[in-house]
Amino acid sequence: EAQVTQNPRYLITVTGKKLTVTCSQNMNHEYMSWYRQDPGLGLRQIYYSMNVEVTDKGDVPEGYKVSRKEKRNFPLILESPSPNQTSLYFCASSSFPPSPGGQPQHFGDGTRLSIL
Amino acid sequence: GQQVMQIPQYQHVQEGEDFTTYCNSSTTLSNIQWYKQRPGGHPVFLIQLVKSGEVKKQKRLTFQFGEAKKNSSLHITATQTTDVGTYFCAAMDSNYQLIWGAGTKLIIKP
Known about the structure:
Chain A is mostly beta strands. Chain A has strands at 4-7, 10-13, 19-25, 31-38, 42-51, 54-57, 65-66, 76-78, 87-94, 106-107, 111-115. Helix content of chain A is 0%, strand content 49%. In chain A, strands 2, 4, 5, 6, 9, 10 and 11 form a seven-stranded mixed beta sheet that branches. Chain A is globular and about 40 Å long. By secondary structure, chain B is mainly beta.
């Protein structure tokens, strides 16, 4: 089954304790993204990657790191989490390059992070 | 950078009434996509529009792309409880970054 898998689904942790949220897709997609979703703010792109070893900052990259060493995986790293990073996070993937019609984004189920 | 404004933020309707959400951009869009997010779920792709003036239908949902490719709308006829959720538009900019509208939450009044 085609899917985007995020882990963990829920995490409560403390300020400053490094954490990684994993994202893996089995559709051989080139394009992958991380979003955070906060009430009233919609989806804000944190980082995106157009292929292996190619990553770009989105709208809200501060405090986050990503890597794309393999096509299927795109982990999100919070080196020193802070309470303002408490949010719902989504990973998404699609094929690339985008045709004039764009490519549908396939989303994971989300990771709810609480930073105390 | 490119921005996509989406209104309204919320819409309360009685079941059976119509619902419309609008997305507007100050710049010409190459394409626009629409997604639905059910409560507690993740966004799910509905459709994409590419051509100026394009209109596409999916059962009770009608999607339009403006002639100038700067605006788009999603209209739901005769809403049902299964339509509840948040509807988002999204457009890709020249740097391949996806720009999202803030979403419109459809709430069905009991």
